[in-house]
Amino acid sequence: ENSGTDPKNLRVKLVLLGDSGVGKSCIVLRFVRGQFDPTSKVTVGASFLSQTLALEDSTTVKFEIWDTAGQERYAALAPLYYRGAGAAIVVYDITSSESFNKAQYWVKELQKHGSPDMIMALVGNKADLHDNRSVSSQDAQEYAERNTMFSIETSAKTADNINQLFEEIAKRLSRPTP
Ligand code: GDP
Ligand code: MG
């Protein structure tokens, strides 16, 4: 319920970054359409989708989502997508330590070139493949804390933590920490 605060209608540009194949497009499709398509196509350049989320205090947050391609040949375009972004989701695959290294590269890029008050989430996707885990939750969490991000593990396949991820971003946008 509305606890005396004015409900707000917020809008935020959100960018997804991370290695190719970690599940960025599947995370977006799960959030926006509630679907998982195991035959989804490789993103070329970038794609745009939007989705509005309502919080418990009836604040709404409209996410304008830029889902980028992870391929090297598009890396030079990335600044176009994270420029002016209020939030970024940096994704790795929990079964690939190489993708975790790549995520750290993107975090540094955002720290160098992104807006200083950008909300950043570090997302370990494919949590359903925990039997093949090669990045520990603790390492990811410690890295995130050192870099003033929050971390969460998701599965676009099972939908685990997908809504929670966007809700956490929405909450941080609507109630910026001092
Ligand atoms: P992107 O290049 O980061 O956009 O990755 P995609 O979203 O295209 O996904 C790459 C591959 O990983 C596809 O074959 C997906 O079906 C698969 N995938 C994505 N998310 C998950 C997940 O949460 N669990 C599992 N097991 N596979 C996933
Ligand atoms: Mg993609």
UniProtKB/TrEMBL annotation:
It comes from the Eukaryota. Keywords: Nucleotide-binding. This is Uncharacterized protein. The lineage of its organism: Eukaryota, Viridiplantae, Streptophyta, Embryophyta, Tracheophyta. One of its GO terms (molecular function) is GTPase activity.
